C-alpha cells in the first residue's frame, strides 16, 4: 500500500495514495513539482549567500593588520575602481544584513563570517533534506499513477475483447 506518512509534524496527515484517483494524484504531483522548484530556487539563493560569505572570509584571511597607508583599488562596480588608501588596517566595516553595517576588528569580522557560513550551511542542509523527502514522495506518486494507468489500460483492453 503506497502511503504518504508524515507523523513527525502533528498538522500533517497520512494519505493512502491508492485511494486517490488519477486527477488527484496529478494535482498532488504538480504541487510537489512546484514545491521542489521553490526549494531549488532557495538552494541557489543560499549557495550564493554562502559563496559571498566565504569570499569575504577568505579576503579577511589575506588582509594584514600592518597595511596602514597601503594603496588599493576600491571597487565602485564590478568593473570600475577608484584609488584608495587604507587608513586603519586593524578594523573593517562589514555588512550584517539588509544594508546595516558595523565596524569590527579583524578577528571579530573573521568570526562573524565563520558563524554566518556555518548557519547558511545548516539551512542549506535542511532544505536539501526537505527536497529529498519531497522527491521521494513525488516518485511514489508517479509509481502509483503508472500502476493505475496500467490497470486502466488492461481493463480497457478486457472491455474491448468482451465487446467483440
UniProtKB/TrEMBL annotation:
A GO-annotated cellular component: prefoldin complex
Keyword Chaperone set for record: yes
SUPFAM superfamilies referenced in this protein's UniProt entry, alphabetically: Prefoldin
Transmembrane segments: none
Keywords from the named record: Chaperone
Domain of life of the source: Eukaryota
CDD domains the record matches: Prefoldin_5
One Gene Ontology MF term: unfolded protein binding
InterPro entries registered for this protein in UniProt: PFD_alpha_archaea, Prefoldin, Prefoldin_subunit_alpha
GO biological process entries: protein folding; RNA polymerase I assembly; RNA polymerase II core complex assembly; RNA polymerase III assembly
Family assignment from sequence similarity: Belongs to the prefoldin subunit alpha family.
PANTHER family found in the cross-reference section: PREFOLDIN SUBUNIT 5
Name the UniProt record assigns to this protein: Prefoldin subunit 5
Organism of origin: Anopheles quadriannulatus (Mosquito)
Amino acid at each position: 500500500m503506497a502511503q504518504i506518512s508524515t507523523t513527525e509534524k502533528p498538522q500533517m496527515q497520512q494519505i493512502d495514495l491508492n485511494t486517490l484517483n488519477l486527477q488527484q494524484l496529478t494535482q498532488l504531483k504538480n504541487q510537489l513539482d512546484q514545491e521542489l522548484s521553490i526549494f531549488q530556487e532557495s538552494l541557489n539563493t543560499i549557495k550564493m549567500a554562502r559563496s559571498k560569505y566565504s569570499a569575504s572570509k577568505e579576503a579577511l584571511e589575506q588582509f594584514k593588520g600592518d597595511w596602514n597607508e597601503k594603496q588599493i583599488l576600491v571597487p565602485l562596480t564590478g568593473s570600475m575602481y577608484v584609488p584608495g588608501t587604507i587608513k586603519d588596517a586593524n578594523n573593517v566595516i562589514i555588512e550584517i544584513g539588509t544594508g546595516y553595517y558595523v565596524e569590527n576588528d579583524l578577528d571579530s569580522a573573521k568570526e562573524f563570517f565563520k558563524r554566518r557560513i556555518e548557519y547558511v550551511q545548516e539551512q542549506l542542509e535542511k532544505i536539501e533534506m526537505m527536497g529529498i523527502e519531497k522527491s521521494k514522495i513525488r516518485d511514489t506518486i508517479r509509481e502509483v499513477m503508472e500502476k493505475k494507468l496500467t490497470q486502466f489500460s488492461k481493463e480497457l483492453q478486457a472491455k474491448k475483447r468482451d465487446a467483440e
